[in-house]
């Protein structure tokens, strides 16, 4: 029996990725290219879109070549509809529309956050976990209920990854491979804990005040030799991650779930995984997490999630293949997670 | 590819306009590019208007704006995605090589 195959495009932030996957979650190829800015600088929409414009076509060829497939074998084309930066999102959307017409293939629009969750579930085998989705643009605690991924708690201002990235700019750490990775490495050398504000508001968290505080005090403290850059990285990580563990634990109590899945770029931080694992084990649960191949934005997660929807009869008409900067996780009807009568399952396996 | 920009004489809110015509060499290519680019509406419809049409394998685009800078930004962004669409056809269309 022929396996269904999807080609997926991700370009909502500073990574452009193209992935080829089958419905059982096998990744046939997943190349990506990251726009890396000089130390002390973030990435801006227009420049990032230019980066994506330059790399998307070679990535498609590389993805098809590695997967050893031709366009004929593809069942559907998937792209990130949002959330993310407008101009970079448009690159994937345009390419997908043109390919859909050239190759006569249907298109499936995918929510970026939902794609992270589905990728995490298939890679780790976590069935129905509480999900902590942490990245440069998003911070949410999510659990599935009645057809949708519900947001139990989230940041009320900036994302945790944004807080880390911007602090890396204060220290002018390298953005290669990512600012968060370099903070994590430096934090391992930290010895002294500096007290920082701790801001949990019910189920929600806030990071912008912590960032302002550490930005305002770091220079002075470093100048007076009160602490080292490593101490600051260590203290910032411990504080931010403790907040995330706290709201995740509260969501677990609400949902009566013992398993936790961490997804998103910050999810490959091993210190965060360690802290979360400790909390889970104290509650008799398990932590599911993945490494940078799956945590960080990639094309395969979009392809896989789009293919799940497509196998359940959903696709996006060309005139509706728009992109949007705001697209909440709970707006998506996760049809593939609903319990089906056995008769409805036939469509799943036919290619 | 030719672009012409002009100031109209009559006092008009849409004072700044410009036209772009691209020969895509076939009716099919022109319709693909048109269909791919017509989906995205202008972000500030009260400041920039864009109209597209195709005939004889050519894509014609007409821009109108209330200020020159909006015209420039819209035109420039459009050319970027237009080139992306045509390159995609060239590189991944019939006879593509991996």
Automatic annotation (TrEMBL), chain A:
Residues 32-304 form the Gcp-like domain. One of its GO terms (cellular component) is nucleus. It catalyses: L-threonylcarbamoyladenylate + adenosine(37) in tRNA = N(6)-L-threonylcarbamoyladenosine(37) in tRNA + AMP + H(+). InterPro entries: ATPase_NBD (IPR043129), Gcp-like_dom (IPR000905), KAE1/TsaD (IPR017861), Kae1_archaea_euk (IPR034680). SUPFAM superfamilies: Actin-like ATPase domain. CDD domains: ASKHA_NBD_OSGEP_like_euk. Keywords: Acyltransferase, Cytoplasm, Metal-binding, Nucleus, Transferase, tRNA processing. One of its GO terms (molecular function) is metal ion binding. It is found in: Cytoplasm; Nucleus. This is Glycoprotease 2. It comes from Theobroma cacao. The gene is GCP2.
UniProtKB/TrEMBL annotation, chain B:
Signal peptide: none annotated. InterPro entries: CTAG/Pcc1. GO terms for biological process: tRNA processing; tRNA threonylcarbamoyladenosine metabolic process. Keywords: Cytoplasm, Nucleus, tRNA processing. It is found in: Cytoplasm; Nucleus. It comes from the Eukaryota. Its main location: cytoplasm. One of its GO terms (cellular component) is nucleus. PANTHER family: EKC/KEOPS COMPLEX SUBUNIT PCC1 FAMILY MEMBER, EKC_KEOPS COMPLEX SUBUNIT LAGE3. Belongs to the CTAG/PCC1 family. This is Uncharacterized protein. It comes from Theobroma cacao.
